[in-house]
Design goal:
14-stranded mixed β-sheet, single chain, about 300 residues, Aminopeptidase, alpha+beta
């Protein structure tokens, strides 16, 4: 695929697949595309391609825009079947500062949606920083709608001994449970957290009452330093003490204060209100956006 468009007298924009680009051009396109962004997203080649593997992104279907030979923009794409529908995820659209507002993002979105159409995608998804109003308006012009508000929270909790019955399983096993929520933000799905851990929680009668998907982060001394929560879903009566027992179970009753961080947690999840009451604070808020491709 190579598509060249003339935007004006001084710009000939060519769009290529990542498989047609050098590593250096790809990394340059990403780092230039996210200069001055709301959060720090600069990548090394190692970090960039680790992310591709971990999140199931596609080199063949991700795109880089060039002005002549200069990489100036990028969009990353991945595909999964979610709730029986082929779903695309835009894992990041970045435009170099001096090319913003000049039509490059429109060309890139058109090219990405053409890729989705050829792949017979039914649903297209993405997340955007809430404050990034220009990007949100662009996506809305292409038919995306805001469907949820998502938050990154961070907090340290004084935990007591765990008193909740639980079972530790592999993330891949979550999909075998009827209560697993498949349709969640891309980075929170089990496929993106294969190197993580999961737990199922039970009441006194051994009925399942919830589950979690998380990663534990260790320091160089082998001590637990941080827990990243990708999912914490409870489908029973919520109590603060139960949530604290779950968090303690995740840390395996570590006696040192442990920092927890949620990733793209839905504000509609009742657990979020409880952990905020426990002292978790919001660090970033995003909107989830969805486009039905047959509309």
């Amino acid at each position: 695929m190579e598509d060249t468009r003339k935007l004006n007298d001084c710009m000939n924009i060519t769009i290529k697949r990542l498989t047609e680009c050098t590593i250096q051009d790809t990394i340059t396109a990403w780092n230039r595309g996210f200069e001055g962004y709301f959060v720090q997203l600069e990548m090394t080649p190692e970090l960039f391609f680790n992310r591709f593997v971990n999140e199931g992104l596609s080199l063949e279907h991700s795109l880089v825009a060039f002005d002549e030979k200069k990489p100036v923009a990028i969009v990353l794409n991945g595909f999964r079947v979610i709730d029986g529908q082929k779903t695309a995820w835009n894992g990041g659209t970045g435009i170099a500062t001096e090319y913003r507002g000049k039509g490059v993002s429109k060309l890139l979105m058109e090219a990405a949606l053409n890729v989705y159409a050829k792949e017979e995608v039914k649903v297209a998804t993405l997340e955007a920083i809430k404050e990034n109003e220009r990007a949100i308006r662009l996506y809305q012009r292409f038919g995306y709608e805001i469907t949820d508000s998502l938050v990154y929270l961070s907090g340290t909790v004084d935990l007591k001994a765990a008193s909740i019955s639980h079972e530790s399983i592999r993330p891949e096993q979550l999909q075998t449970y009827h209560f697993y929520k498949e349709n969640l933000p891309w980075q929170c799905q089990w496929q993106s957290v294969k190197s993580g851990e999961a737990q199922i929680y039970y009441d006194e009668n051994q009925n399942p009452i919830g589950y979690s998907l998380f990663k534990r982060v260790w320091n160089q001394e082998g001590q637990l330093e941080k827990v990243v929560l990708y999912q914490l879903e409870i489908f029973a009566e919520l109590k603060e003490e139960s949530i604290k027992s779950i968090l303690s179970t995740i840390t395996r009753e570590n006696k040192n204060p442990i920092n927890f961080m949620t990733i793209n947690a839905s504000l509609s999840n009742p657990v979020i209100l409880i952990v905020q009451d426990l002292g978790f604070v919001k660090t970033t808020e995003q909107v989830q956006m969805v486009k039905k491709m047959n509309q």
